[in-house]
Amino acid sequence: MKCYSYIFLVACLVLPLVVFAQSPPSPPQIGLGWTGLVYTGDLTVEESDYLRLYPGGNIYLQFANTRKFRLRINAGFGKVVEQLDRRFITAEENRIANTYFETNIFYLDLRLMRYFFTKGRVQPYIGFGPSLLSFNPRDQEGDFLIDNVFTRELGEEYATTTFVWPATFCLSIPFGKMLNL
User: Fold this and answer.
1) Checking DSSP bridges between strand 167-172 and strand 69-83, what pairing results, if any?
2) Segment 11-55, tens digit of pLDDT
3) φ, ψ dihedrals at 116, nearest 5°
4) CA 39/CA 26 separation, integer angstroms
5) What Cα–Cα distance (Å) separates residue 172 from each residue in 25, 115, 161?
6) Average pLDDT over all residues of the chain
């Protein structure tokens, strides 16, 4: 009987430590953000073409907010307008050289975020993950390029969705409990 009393006493002392050894999980975080889009494609020729940054926005749902690695579901949008400045493209016979397009972009992705500090005023982080990107480019007259086969090479197909791997490099500064910049 004495043995059971010692086991009971040890259990009463150790059990509360085991129960409170981990902090309770934090609730998911919902957020809004601004994004910068950069076009890379047929009309990107010189290094200066990469300096064009197009604004966009996103909404996200993030899990495990107290850990260094966090999972984020992200949905966003933006608009890209690109023009081949001061250059001439030679087109194949019976083809029109396309030197301009504009498109609205929508995406849905799943990213793994790596926060470098879990506490503190400033929180730098990076993220990476698969994304489904939807777009439908138009020419200068507002016609959809997917409908005009003469703006692409013979046999070239246009798609309006694609799979991409976006990268995120950010700095989060909290202003209160529910607002981050």
Assistant:
1) unpaired
2) 444 444 444 445 666 678 888 888 888 777 666 666 666 667 889
3) -85, -25
4) 37
5) 21, 10, 30
6) 76
